[in-house]
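Fig. S4 source data, part A: sequence.
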Amino acid sequence: MSAHIEAKKNEIAETVLMPGDPLRAKWIAETFLDNVYCYSKIRGMLGYTGEFKGQRISIQGSGMGIPSAMIYYHELINDYDVKRIIRVGTAGSYQEDVKIRDIVLALSASTNSGINNAIFNDFNYAPTADFNLILKAALYAQENNILIKAGNILSSDLYYEEDPMAYKKWAKYGVLCAEMESAGLYTIAAKHNIEALTILTISDSMVTGEKCSFEERERTFKEMVQIALNICED
């Protein structure tokens, strides 16, 4: 056991898919995996291991925001020897051509978080995804006629901005959408030399005001999960 995950050492696979919502973790595990078992329920942050096409895969909730997610990233890597983490989450669009239910591959993750300032002081570190996972995801999407967008995203510490138009500055510089975890994932993955990628489904739009329902956020968005699962082969 680690401090926040009650799994035994061999109960977590080397590849872990990580939604923020633990109920989405449950849905993914029960919908896509065979021979599934739940290895952790601590703090309601559910974790599961099963098989997809004969390969062991784990699904672990991370909670919302970099501080919560970093706890699970750290323990998975350091206590359970995880080698590949793929975040599967939702995001809010910052661009007119990035629409509800579009899939985004996060090539890099800008952030307003102070996490990397604490590490690099006055320097700006650019957290980026693993190229091999990006390539696999793009090829799988192309071969299966799944439309994707790829580019820079924002990992924000703020879900509710003081200024509702603040997103426009990020949008002006090409940021596709906002979520809350990926800059932390890409930074810790680089430190420990593991593979990491974030695949997002657009659940709402700052541009149009459209929003998906809570049920859609929790139990749909199958294409992003299919991409993630099908790029996990070693």
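Fig. S4 source data, part B ends here. The CA atoms of residues 25 and 93 lie 23 Å apart.
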